[in-house]
Amino acid sequence: MIYLPIAGTWGAKDDEWFKQGSWFARLLQGHGIDRVGESLRFWSTALGGTWGCGNDHLVWDHAGEKLTAWQERLPMRDERLIVIAHSWGGAVAAYAL
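^ that's the sequence the OP posted. Answer follows.
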C-alpha cells in the first residue's frame, strides 16, 4: 500500500509527522505502507505553490484541484493511494474528492 500525508496550514512545526523518515513514516513503513510524494512538504507549498490559512474555501478548493492533478500524474499501480490528512489538510483532501 502507499500513502500521501497532507498536513494542515501550520504543518511545518517541529514534529513534522508528514515528512519522509519521520516517526510516523517509519511506523507505517513497518506495516508495509510506503509514503509517496517525497518532494511534497505540506499542502500549502507542495501543490504548485498553493498557500493560504484559516477558513478559506477558495484556497482549499484550489489546493484540492492541485492534489487531484498530482494524483492523476502518479504512475498506474495496483495499490490504492491512502490520503492521511490533518487539520486544514483534511479540507484539501475533501475538495480533491
